[in-house]
Every structure is written in structure tokens, then in C-alpha cells.
Write a structure and sequence with these properties.
two-stranded antiparallel ribbon, 2 domains, alpha/beta, nine-stranded mixed β-sheet, 37% helix, 17 helices, globular
Length: 450
């Protein structure tokens, strides 16, 4: 009998090290079974379990304890920031996402004239509403400790990430979004300012902010568990208070975080994938400002400024998107939105060794001329897309990203903040290079009740 499972793991270039089952060459994970059904775990759908083992697994699922702890937290409110699709006929559609496969099939099932009309609409909208997106690559002197690699070598260091993080903070500094935070630190007002990093991951955006500008109170919002976190380094700083909230942004009621009550705060996030950007904006700015009482203004956290680097627009969902009304006024339907979000994945297709300039004449190069109508209809939409040049696909992807982010920008401005959308790093550092940055025009903005 073999002493280890005989299933070959190509990525690890070795056999599985688990002990095989009796009378088998393979372990329980790799034994082929007939008439078995794998179902998603109801506690953590990211993994599946054999249906026959579900009852036992539920009692010992690794996420069970975390879920039980989270459910009793005062700041946990299921779906508070998720938004709503008012066109959905039932609750089931509200809860299900429109997958990338659904989006692709929707595009491929379009007629060629419909596809051509959609591309014309994208080009026209981009020309009219996205012409003011400027390039703003900022390397503030305050971040020299990291930029010049004068940091503890025990900390994970990747230059491209540091350049992105430094430029996020540099753009915030240019807008004046860090002034109240740094002033509070210099005045040693430890209880008057905080930083909330959404989608924090390991927390290295906050680490650079703390090393470069000095902060006293930090909240790291992240639903997953990570190794090599910045938490240990941050906790070693004198007078630093750090609280990690392991929760999905969708379920976070920031008003109910007791240790943040009444404090002005800076909200930051680097690469908030797809709908996480919309969830973050709604978490910080959702609701109607005109209905706040004096009591609410004094007890709720108050937003000073916000900087969110967007990415992964192909994951965006109509039900989560903050500014559906804006897109609808521009003639973008729910179905158009599905197609546009699918196109955004093409923005990373091209070679970004040099900065890619968006070519607004794209429409004439993507579709064949009217003289080739017969061949165009024979190809169909799928054939046309497969024959597109990589640069044209990337250009279309960037256009769609800009339109989505412009709707978010307008939503922020509608809430009374001074805001802008910029390209904060060159595409050779990251093609995911759009940054939403804003600051309150009043001393601080309170989060309204939802």
C-alpha cells in the first residue's frame, strides 16, 4: 500500500502528501466517487462539501466561529450597503449576480446593428462626459521613506504597489484631504481623527500613511484573513490604536462602530474590486443629508475626505451601482450596463509597456464598413469581437471603465463633496489606474442613517 496519495499536483510538481484511503491509491480529496454530490457550504460558499458529509461539516466549518462572532456585533447589518435593483421582479433576482458568462452571452446574442449602436453610444458618451479625466501622478516627499526603500526589510516590498499607494496619498494631499488629519496629529488630539481603510487586505496603504503622515486611530475593514499583515508593525507605533473589522463592506454600518462615534475620519481604499467601490461609497455617503438632526451630527462619524482606487469593473453589478439614475439619463440601460462591464476586462488585454492613449476614432476601426454588410452579418457579434485588435479592445475597455467611474464621481458630487477622477499612475505601473478622490467642503460630513 502506498504511504501517500498518488494524485499528481502539477503546480507543486509532486504527489499529494495526504494518506490514502483503505484499498485505494488516493486520499479522500482525490478519490473518484460515483453518485456523489458536491454542494456549496451554507456558511462559506467559497468551498464545497459532499452532500453526505454536510451535517458534520457545518458543526466544524472554519468560518462558523467568525460568523457567530460577527452576527452579534452592533455594526453588522446584513446588506445595508448593497443597493437595490428596482427593476427586479422578485427577491431571488435581487440576491443573484449577473455572472461574466451571462454578460458574454448577452453580448454575443446581440444583433450586429445593436452592437454597432452600443459602440457608437459608448464613444459618444466618452467624448462628452469623460474628457476632463486628467493624469495626476504624485510622489509626495512625505513618502520618501518608502519610495527610496528606507524601510524595514522585514516588511513585504513591491515597488509598483508603493508607487501606487504614494500617488493615492499625494493626490489626497494636493486636494487638501490630509490637512485636518495631520493637523490633529500635530496638535496631539488623539481622539479627534481616524483612518478607515476599506478592502484593506494586509493594510499596507495604511502602513505608508502612518509612516509618512502620522495617524493615531486606524480601522481596517476586510472580509478575508491574510498572512503577513501590517498590523504588527502598526501596533508597535507609539499611541497607535488599531481595530480590524473582519466584515464584508456590504454589511458594515459605520454609524454603529462605537469607537468611531463622533470622529472625523479619512476613508481610503486601493483596488476596491468591482462593486466593492460602490459598497464603500454607499457606506460612507449613503442616504439623504437634509434629514439629519443635531444629535445625529454629533454622534455619527464624520467624513473628512475619501480616496478610492477602482478596479475590476467587469465584476460590477447593476443592483450595487451607486448612480443608476445618472446612467439611465444618458441612455444606458441595465442590459447596456451588463455589456459595458464585460467590455472593461479588455482594458488589460493590450501591452501597457507605454501609456495607452484612448482613441476616440475607435468606432471606425472596430466595425467593417457598410460596404461589407454581408460579411459583417455572417461573422456575427462574436466573430467581430474575435477579429478586433487588442489595442482596440483595450481602448473600448478603458472607455467603459471611465463611464462607470464618471457616474460614481457625479454621485459623490451630488452629496456636496469637492471631487475629481484622475489617472493616478501610468498604465505601465498598473492599467487599473483610476482614482476617485474627494473632500468635504464643510468641516466634516456626517454619515446619515440609512
Amino acid at each position: 500500500m502506498e504511504t501517500h496519495c498518488q494524485f499528481w499536483l502539477p503546480k507543486k510538481n509532486r504527489f499529494c502528501a495526504n494518506t490514502p484511503l483503505n484499498l485505494s491509491q488516493f486520499c479522500g480529496n482525490h478519490t473518484t466517487r460515483s453518485n456523489v454530490k458536491w454542494v456549496p457550504c451554507p456558511i462559506d460558499p467559497s468551498h464545497s462539501v459532499l452532500d453526505e458529509n454536510m451535517e458534520g461539516h457545518i458543526k466544524k466549518c472554519p468560518l462558523l466561529k467568525q460568523t457567530q462572532i460577527l452576527s452579534v456585533q452592533p455594526y453588522y447589518q446584513k446588506g445595508i450597503n448593497q443597493g437595490r435593483d428596482d427593476s427586479a421582479p422578485d427577491t431571488l433576482e435581487q440576491e443573484s449576480d449577473f455572472t461574466s458568462e451571462n454578460k458574454r452571452n448577452w453580448v454575443y446574442n446581440m444583433t450586429v446593428p445593436q452592437f454597432s449602436e452600443l459602440l457608437s453610444k459608448i464613444r459618444s458618451l466618452h467624448c462628452s462626459i469623460c474628457k476632463d479625466i486628467g493624469f495626476s501622478y504624485r510622489m509626495p516627499h512625505a513618502c520618501d521613506l518608502w519610495i527610496k526603500r528606507q524601510i524595514d526589510r522585514k516588511l513585504p516590498y513591491q515597488e509598483k504597489h508603493v508607487l501606487q499607494q504614494a500617488s493615492i496619498l499625494g493626490n489626497l494631499e494636493d486636494l487638501g484631504g490630509l490637512s485636518s488629519l495631520t493637523q490633529a496629529v500635530s496638535d496631539e488630539q488623539c481622539d479627534t481623527s481616524a483612518v478607515v481603510e476599506f478592502g484593506a487586505g494586509r493594510g499596507y496603504l495604511t502602513q505608508i500613511l502612518a509612516d509618512s503622515y502620522g495617524i493615531r486611530k486606524v480601522f481596517l475593514v476586510e472580509r478575508k484573513s491574510y498572512k503577513l499583515k501590517a498590523d504588527r508593525s502598526l501596533r508597535q507605533k507609539e499611541n497607535m490604536e488599531l481595530e480590524r473589522l473582519r466584515i464584508d463592506i456590504e454589511d458594515l454600518n459605520l454609524n454603529a462602530v462605537e469607537s468611531l462615534n463622533g470622529m472625523p475620519y479619512l476613508a481610503i481604499g486601493k483596488h476596491l474590486c468591482g462593486p466593492a467601490t460602490d459598497l464603500t461609497l454607499r457606506c460612507c455617503l449613503g442616504g439623504n443629508y437634509g434629514e439629519k438632526s443635531i444629535t445625529e451630527q454629533s454622534t455619527h462619524p464624520r467624513l473628512v475626505s475619501i480616496a478610492v482606487a477602482t478596479c475590476c469593473h467587469h465584476l460590477c453589478q447593476w443592483k450595487h451601482y451607486t448612480n443608476k439614475r445618472y446612467l439611465e439619463k444618458l441612455g444606458i440601460t441595465k442590459e447596456d450596463f451588463h455589456a459595458i462591464t464585460w467590455f472593461t476586462s479588455w482594458a488589460v488585454d493590450a501591452d501597457h509597456g507605454s501609456d495607452l492613449t484612448i482613441d476616440v476614432s475607435l468606432q471606425s476601426t472596430v466595425l467593417p464598413s457598410n460596404n461589407d454588410e454581408c460579411r459583417r452579418n455572417t461573422l456575427g457579434v462574436e466573430g467581430i469581437i474575435k477579429n478586433m485588435k487588442a489595442a482596440d479592445r483595450a481602448t473600448l475597455g478603458f472607455m467603459c471603465k471611465d463611464i462607470i467611474d464618471m457616474g460614481r464621481l457625479m454621485w459623490i458630487k451630488e452629496r456636496g463633496l469637492e471631487a475629481k477622477l484622475v489617472k493616478y499612475v501610468p498604465t505601465d505601473i498598473s492599467p487599473e489606474n483610476r482614482l476617485l478622490v474627494a473632500k468635504a467642503t464643510t468641516p466634516a460630513v456626517s454619515i446619515p442613517t440609512s
